[in-house]
Amino acid sequence: MSGNTAPETTAGITKNDGPAPRVLTDRELSQLLREQRFGVLASVRSSGHPHLSTVLYDWNAEERVLRVSSTADRLKVRQLRRDPHASLHVSGPDVWSFAVAEGEAEIVDPADGAAPGERPLPDRRVVILIRVSRLYGTTLTQVPGGR
Question: Is the backbone of residue 123 left (phi > 0), alpha (psi -120 to 50) or beta?
């Protein structure tokens, strides 16, 4: 038997001497979304299972809106047209920090508002707008001042 043993457990909970996760404030969550550029967008497949896509996004904290550019033929766009529920997971500066933004998506297609005879963009770009209704996340990093 090796000298490596699992920490003692009580009712199936592993004892851990490290810091407990700290819930991020709305300001900290918004800052994390602003500082990062890549996230994982979750949409809902017709089977009910999640579909995950790595995306480049833009966060507008004042409007609480995420913007993601995509092409009209992508699976995520088709799924969000069918079921607008979406979540974006963004990793923080360490593996223990994250933010999640949840909301309903709207697909904005510039071709829908094109004037007669106006040519659409060559790759049929659309913008996925997610109006964020819930924002949450945690970190193991302590707040300055030891809170």
Answer: alpha
Instruction: Tell me the residue type at 58.
Output: D
**Euclidean distance between CA atoms 4 and 49, whole angstroms:** 38
**Could you say which DSSP state residue 113 is in?**
G
- Domains for the chain: give ranges and CATH numbers: 19-111+120-139 (2.30.110.10)
Q: Give the Cα separation of 120 and 71 in Å (integer).
A: 12
For residue 32 the two structure tokens come to: 């994390």
Q: What is the pLDDT of residue 49?
A: 96
User: What is the rounded distance in angstroms from the CA atom of residue 93 to the CA atom of residue 74?
Assistant: 29
pTM of the predicted model over 0.90: no
> What are residue 58's DSSP bridge partners?
67
